[in-house]
Amino acid sequence: MRPVPNSLHDEVASRLREQIFGGALPPGSFLDEAALCERLEISRTPLREALKVLVAEGLLRHEPRRGCFVAEVTERDLDEIFPVIALLEGRAAHEATQKASSADVAALETLHQRLQQCASEGRIPDYYAANHAIHEAFITLADNRWLAQVIGDLRKILRLARLQQLHAPGRLQQSLAEHLAVFAALKAGDSAAAEDAMRTHLLRQRDALRDVARNQQSRLTP
């Protein structure tokens, strides 16, 4: 049998990843290989190669003699991931501050103005988009492929949890203030302060998620 081109199983992995992040394949759901092959119009070989990729990324878990299931992110997972990603993104902010040009600062200024406008108008989905663009900008400016790779892998796991930390009371304005603190440190050329501010920003996201979980639990408790 001829080897399956990498592009095919990569394409399949990408399509399954989109379905996982989009909610079509929710956490805990079983991936029926026969049904997927029929729906995607592919053979078992590229599907199984794609499943291996997603298992390696942590988006799926494989159970012997049972098959693959979409991974479920627990509170313990979040407690363990956030301190790690806080360290990594803090380091990215440190390196970005050292490498940012005046043109980079101007581009970041525009992104932060957009973030402020979204916050002032209470447009949470747009705030999330601007927030993501800012984090990506810092990682790009850091220009460290190892940092980018590991942060990207952890972000995929966090996307599984469908986190909504901005719904915690007061979190929107707090998040904005944290971003502005990181940016102020970058503009001042203070890489240590930028690192510390970014690390604090990520850790406070975890605190906000706990508040959201507590509020949801209290509404469910009679």
From TrEMBL:
Keyword hit for Transcription: yes
Every HTH gntR-type domain range: 6-73
Name by which UniProt lists this protein: GntR family transcriptional regulator
InterPro entries per record: GntR_C (IPR011711), TF_FadR/GntR_C (IPR008920), Tscrpt_reg_HTH_GntR (IPR000524), WH-like_DNA-bd_sf (IPR036388), WH_DNA-bd_sf (IPR036390)
Keyword DNA-binding carried by entry: yes
Alphabetical list of Gene3D superfamilies matching this protein: GntR ligand-binding domain-like (1.20.120.530), Winged helix-like DNA-binding domain superfamily/Winged helix DNA-binding domain (1.10.10.10)
Keyword entries, A-Z: DNA-binding, Transcription, Transcription regulation
SMART domains membership: FCD, HTH_GNTR
Gene Ontology MF terms: DNA binding; DNA-binding transcription factor activity
SUPFAM superfamilies tied to this protein: GntR ligand-binding domain-like, Winged helix' DNA-binding domain
Pfam families: FCD, GntR
